[in-house]
Design brief:
CATH class of one domain: Alpha Beta
InterPro entries: DNA_recomb/repair_RecN, P-loop_NTPase, RecF/RecN/SMC_N
Number of strands: 15
GO cellular component, one term: bacterial nucleoid
Low-confidence stretches: none
CATH topology of one domain: Rossmann fold
Strand order of the largest sheet: 2-1-4-5-6-7
CATH architecture of one domain: 3-Layer(aba) Sandwich
Helix content: 55-70%
Protein name: DNA repair protein RecN
Organism: Nonomuraea polychroma
GO molecular function: ATP binding
């Protein structure tokens, strides 16, 4: 399903007090008497899609102008995804866009219920609408758009070489970036290699072991307090087992006292099971205390002051601390840094070989891109010639028989994402005139017809789903006007088309005809925009033809035009 504009609500814009336009999927035409506000419809659509806000267009007496559009889009499609990415909502395939302009010139925009910068509407419009009017022909005047449109027109013949070129271009860009880094940063990389070598040599000289800093700190604490530790162990041992130098008969050690307690309880244990349990626990305590005393004696024997070892430990700790301050938080971290530094140094020392490999690959890719870019140019030149001829033929039928459109391709010196071709649509107003850029080679009214011819030729290849034309019929009439209507109807087979016109020959081809009428006070109110049935269309076309709604000659001519348009469908 192609997106389309379903409804537009306009308030306080120009002569429009309030108007609602309900639009059909095909060819919509808007007519009305001069000054009725038809062009404000195009202005409103322009504002809705990010157009410049002009406070002078606000209706006198109103403090602001507002436009709200309801669009039907594909749920989960590209546009819906863009809206959801910025936090907007799309409900059941319906998107609401709003824009307000204050009398002071301030502008606000909403997309899917969320306030957004006006530039967001402009960005989104690239995928939704193309506005062609006297003051607004921007979309296909952009060089990037022109190249993209020509590529779509070229079709399948361009797809395969463009895909191959794109893949080669991405790799070429990656290789070029790597080469630039390796060559332009050679000094920085050499300095980095020197720092890494110095660090690795320093670490290798010290040769730290995992956890060594923790072990050394513990050993230093023990050696620094050897006397205190030995004294404490000896005192504890004496308290548990007693001093062998002390006279017998005055036991004060824990083992002796436990023995006395156990003997007292053992003597009467048979008289009470509860006390027997206590006796067993006293026996266990005696065994445990004896084991602890043995350990204390062994510990006291092992501890001795060793000033030489203490100095060696302190010196080793100082060296390790120096490494830790520079490279990590502990000795294990220092070893990890050394491992990473060795790997990085291997990369840096292999730069020369890597540069040679990348240079060879870069040269091969450059040759490949040159060949692929030449193939793209060949396909584009053929498509450009065919396209220029087709548009020129369309212009002949649109009352511009001497105009000629050409597609000029120039080659850039640098490879780009789409090749080396720069595409520009140009027009020569008459055979002796040089082809000029579209916005310089045609007047405002002519430019709308040129754009119509281009869009008709591009129809099906251009993904834009809605086209808006204002003044596309300026300065023409008769047969040329019929041809304009015929081509707008042809364009409406693949897209929604909205046209403001004063020519009945154009209006007759519409699928839906909206008429804008002023109220008695000169404003356009909600009831002033009407979708016409067949009888209403006859009356409106008759007015446009003869100036009188009920002129028999005008009505007959109107019926004839409607019949001609119907037979063309």
């Amino acid at each position: 399903m192609r997106p389309r504009v379903e409804e537009v609500r306009i308030q306080g814009l120009g002569v429009i007090d309030e108007a609602v336009l309900e639009l059909s999927p095909g060819f919509n035409v808007v007519t009305g008497e001069t000054g009725a506000g038809k062009t404000m419809v195009v202005t409103g659509l322009g504002l809705l899609f990010g157009g410049r806000a002009d406070p002078s267009r606000i209706r006198p007496g109103a403090d602001r102008a507002s436009v709200e559009g309801t669009l039907v889009i594909e749920s989960g499609g590209r546009v819906a995804q863009q809206v959801e990415d910025i936090g907007g909502e799309v409900e059941d395939g319906t998107l609401i866009i709003s824009r307000q302009v204050s009398a002071e010139g301030r502008s606000r925009a909403w997309l899917g219920g969320r306030t957004v910068p006006v530039g967001t509407l402009t960005y989104l419009a690239d995928d939704l609408v193309a506005v062609h009017g006297q003051m607004d022909q921007q979309r296909l005047l952009q060089p990037a758009r022109q190249r993209a449109a020509l590529d779509r027109y070229a079709g399948d013949e361009l797809v395969k070489p463009l895909r191959a070129y794109t893949q080669a271009y991405k790799r070429h860009k990656q290789v070029a970036a790597l080469l630039e880094e390796l060559t332009t940063r050679a000094r920085e990389r050499a300095q980095e290699a020197d720092r890494l070598r110095f660090g690795l040599e320093e670490i290798e000289k010290v040769d730290p072991k995992p956890g060594e800093d923790v072990d050394l700190r513990s050993e230093e604490e023990r050696l620094s307090h050897a006397d205190a530790l030995r004294s404490a162990a000896t005192t504890a041992h004496t308290a548990l087992l007693g001093d062998p130098m002390e006279a017998a008969g005055s036991p004060h050690d824990v083992i002796s006292l436990l023995g006395e307690a156990r003997a007292a309880v053992e003597a009467v244990r048979d008289f009470d099971t509860q006390l027997a349990g206590v006796a067993d626990r006293l026996a266990e305590a005696g065994y445990l205390i004896s084991d602890v005393a043995t350990d204390l004696a062994a510990y006291a024997e092992s501890i001795e002051a060793d000033p030489a070892r203490l100095a060696a430990v302190q010196e080793r700790r100082s060296v390790l601390s120096g490494l830790i301050r520079k490279y990590a938080e502990d000795s294990a971290g220092v070893l990890a840094w050394a491992q990473q530094a060795a790997a990085r140094l291997g990369e840096l020392e292999g730069d020369d070989e890597r540069i040679d490999e990348l240079t060879r690959e870069h040269d091969e890719l450059t040759d490949k891109l040159t060949d692929l870019a030449a193939e793209l140019t060949r396909v584009r030149e053929a498509a450009a010639e065919q396209f220029g001829q087709a548009v020129t033929e369309e212009l002949t039928a649109l009352a511009m028989p001497h105009a000629r459109v050409v597609v000029q391709l120039t080659q850039s010196a640098e490879f780009g994402p789409e090749g080396v071709d720069e595409v520009e649509l140009r027009m020569a107003a008459h055979p002796a005139a040089p082809p000029l850029p579209l916005n310089k080679g045609a007047s405002g009214g002519e430019l709308s017809r040129v754009m119509l011819a281009i869009e008709v030729v591009f129809a099906g290849a251009d993904p834009v789903p809605t086209f808006v034309f204002d003044e596309v019929d300026a300065g023409v009439g008769g047969k040329a006007a019929v041809e304009i209507g015929r081509r707008l109807a042809r364009l409406a087979r693949t897209a929604q088309v909205i046209v403001v016109t004063h020519l009945p020959q154009v209006a007759a081809f519409a699928d839906q005809h909206l008429v804008v009428e002023k109220a008695s006070d000169g404003s356009v109110v909600r009831s002033g925009v009407t979708a016409l049935d067949h009888e209403g269309r006859v009356r409106e076309l008759s007015r446009m033809l003869a100036g009188l709604e009920d002129s028999e000659l005008g009505r007959a001519h109107a019926e004839e035009l409607l019949g001609l348009a119907a037979s063309d469908r």
